[in-house]
Amino acid sequence: MSATPTLTATGLGKRYGRKWALRGCTVEIPAGRVAGLVGPNGAGKTTLLHCAVGLLAATEGSVTVLGGRPAADVEQLGKVGFLAQDAPVYGSLSIADHLKFGARMNPKWDGEFARDRIDQLGLDPKQRAGKLSGGQRAQVALTLALAKRPEVLVLDEPVAALDPLARRDFLATLASYVAEHGIGVIMSSHLLADLERVCDFLVLVSAARVQLADDVDDLLATHRRIIGPRRDLTTLPGDQHVVWESHTDKQTTAVVRATGPIHDPAWQVEELSLEDVVLAYMGGAGEVRSIGRTTMGVVQ
Amino acid sequence: MIEFHLDSRSGVSPYLQLVQQVRHALRLGMLSPGEQLPTVKDVVACLAINPNTVLKAYRELEHAGLAAGRPGVGTFITATLSDAPVAAQLPLRRELDRWIGKARAAGLDDESIEAIFQDSFRAASARDIA
To answer: What is the C-alpha radius of gyration for chain B, rounded to an integer number of angstroms?
Structure first.
């Protein structure tokens, strides 16, 4: 596994007319990780992914995948696999046609892998792709993306439209491939419970900016919800950074990032799921922390 | 061989859940030295989780002296957690049973009993740290 980061973005921005879809995006996704990309709708996730695979040209800044400029040449195109939103296939072509097409278009095409996968899925190669179920279509599209033997696979909302079983099958296929071949993955999704299982790195894009980019285990280990009698959070120890807070006249609830254990017995300390952590950052996105202002959750 | 499961709402990171499940199985005698743990590929295919999660869990078990990896074969259990602790658990459990009986007799409901236990537990942990 090379140590060149899977993705490096520096001040990346994309503008449509007057509106910035993504701005000042600076983030590094380390090599060989399965990175989840999360954020509200319209936050710039798809824009970031499209810039990374070369479908969009950046307005400002730069992005590289495995050190190379997106879609710069045949070699770069061969290194990066891309599965677009809703797993598009050619409805009137058969699965076999898709595989033939893939073999013609990709120098490193692994035809045996592709045929085996289709076989394992119990699909008839003669079947038209338009007749497949959503789960089958996603699996075929994933097979095509993997058969080109990419070093990095980029997936845009690959499982959003799938039922829970099809979703689990899809992610198991992806995770097994990663276990065997150690490729880097960047995957956007709204389904945080899935990402918590499959991803070991998380990038949060909100309001056209990167709010968070970190190791998942580290995020889970350092974020805590603290609940206790109302108090001024500026008095917290220096190693506890407040991500989100809410006060009633008697109680204070906050999400903090703490590098050490929280000893203060006045706090009830709770562990958070990845979803809770992400929500805390999204709730605080763009807001400046100021004590006294916040009276969220109070019924006056 | 044991089979892993994941609770996505627990707030405990997946790799720690795997470690805890092995420790739990060892404590209950469901795993013993010499037994093989599921291969990384099997766990990944079964749970749809990140391979690094499994590797990290197995490394932690190795670090704790509970398992050892044999290159190209898999990870095997090398120690046990079951004997002494189980014996020590019995009298402690009996004492706790008696205490719960007393709390009920005093008219406390289940929620109050849990609250007292958790509060005392937290206070004791805080004292240990201080």
So the answer is: 19
Give the mutation candidate from B46, B50, B114, B128 for the A interface (greatest A CB count, under 10 A).
Answer: B50
- Cα separation, A58 vs A51, whole angstroms: 6
pLDDT digits (tens, 9 = 90+) for B24-39: 998 877 888 999 999 9
Residue A148, Cβ density class (10 Å: 0-12 exposed, 13-18 middle, ≥19 buried): buried
Q: What is the pTM of this model?
A: 0.80
Residues on chain B touching A199 (C-beta within 8 angstroms):
50
Query: Does the beta carbon of B47 lie under 8 angstroms from any beta carbon of chain A?
Result: yes
pLDDT tens, position by position, A281-297: 987 533 333 333 333 33
- Of A135, A160, A168, nearest to A41 (Cα)? A160
CA A33/CA B14 separation, integer angstroms: 16
Instruction: Return the half-sphere exposure (C-beta side, CA atoms, 13 A cut-off) of residue B81.
Output: 18
The residues, any chain, with a CB within 8 Å of residue B22's CB and separated by 6 or more, are B2, B31, B37, B57, B61, B66, B67, B77
